[in-house]
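Today's session is about reading a structure prediction critically. Students often jump straight to the picture, but the first step is always the sequence itself: look for stretches that repeat, for charged clusters, for runs of hydrophobic residues. Only then move on to the predicted structure, which in these notes is written as discrete structure tokens rather than atom positions. Here is the chain we will use throughout the hour.
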Amino acid sequence: MVVILLGPPGVGKGTQAVRLADSVGWEHVSTGDLLRAARRAGTELGKKAQAFMDAGELVPDSLILDLVRDHLKGIAPEAGILLDGFPRTTAQAEGLEGVLEAVGRRVDRVVVFEASDEELIRRLSGRR
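Below is the predicted structure for this chain, in token form.
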């Protein structure tokens, strides 16, 4: 099963993804975590991503999709997957379909988290 968790920053996607993944034994996939791990490991994709970040640019959707594809290939076919805040763009959403198809999966559910603007500002201000 593949479940996508979407919503604005500060709404609790990551917190709930970790809790849910831990409680049911699923794989929690965060593109931020994948990027940091690839950079630390010095992989080719990590080096490419680092070059964009060093230039103050966003990492291209195609590179994010490659990171996700590589990661998903290493997950057992029977394991559940929680995609935390991914996809973020239309291009990523369209590309994800092909990535999942390549690993014999499909999106089963999408959960959208919501909170008031006031609550999001309160939560994000507390992170400083």
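Discussion point for the tutorial: The chain has a mean pLDDT of 94.
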